Amino acid sequence: MGTISRKSGCFKQLLLMTTALAGIMVIDMPPPTSAENVQENVQRQEAETIMTQATMTWQNFMQDPDLSSFRSHVKDAKGILIFPRLFKGAFLFGVEGGNGVLFVRDEKTGSWSEPAYYEISSASFGVQAGVEQSEATMIVQTVKGIESLLSSTVKLGADASAVIGPKGSGIEGATSMSMGKDFVTYARTKGVFAGISVEGASVRTRDDLNAAYYGPSVRPSDIVLIRNVKPNPRSQVLRQAIFNGTAGKGK
Prior knowledge:
Blueprint (H helix, E strand, L loop, with lengths): L1 H27 L6 H29 L4 H6 L5 E26 L11 E25 L2 H7 L3 E3 L6 E3 L5 H9 L4 E9 L10 E4 L1 H8 L5 H7 L9 H10 L6
Parallel strand pairs: 4-5
Antiparallel strand pairs: 1-2, 2-5, 2-6, 3-6
Helix pairs in contact: 2-6, 2-8
């Protein structure tokens, strides 16, 4: 019995020493940098870059002398979707797309929501050559247009109607061709292509960027309708600019 007792005591001492040593190692070792943390940082930086670029795009649209119709038209918008960088490269086969942010106006209070992140992409066949970079702002004119964006993906021309806005013709010209359309797209283009076409383009949510910007488990409806996300200070410059550009109809 004495031998068993001594062995048991030795085992307990060994167990205590091992536990203590493990605790010291955990305290002394720096926390590992996981691949998930790296990815989150990359997505957060991407979201912030898109926001900065979208602010510049909004300023460009408000100052462009050829876009007077946009400045008149946007005052009655239910939502604004800004794509600061649309890339299109083609040689017989063209692909275009980019990332952007959506702001939605509250019909009762007139206030503008925080931004939700989206991406747009399309493909077209044709005899094309060159590379193009554009910036575009889509005016959401209807409740249906807003609701369609809250699904995971909406295809313009199929799930929602869309048209390209005119240049410089004022609100009368803009209204005559966009009456009843869910989306009206205004674009500023550089490169060899004459313009962009949104017909057949797919717009989908960037859940990864929304999570990086606000936190996990956030949905577009939480951001633009329910509005239960914490405002991100990095978006307030653009949000204020939209308020100013819509003649005080939002805040």
